[in-house]
Amino acid sequence: MKRELFSLQDKVALIAGGAGDIGAACARAYAHYGARIIIFDRDPGKIRERLDEWKKEGIQADSYCGDITDEGFLESMVKEIAAIYGRIDIALNNIAVTNRKPMLEFTTAQWRDVIDINLNGAYYFLREVGRVMCGQDHGKIIQILSTGAYRFGANFSAYGASKAGVSALVKCLAVEWAPHNIQVNGIAPTATETGFTRDYYREYPERMEATIQNHPYKRLGQPEDYVGAAVYLASEAADFVNGEVIIIDSGKTVK
Question: What residue ranges are annotated as transmembrane (predicted)?
Answer without folding.
Answer: none
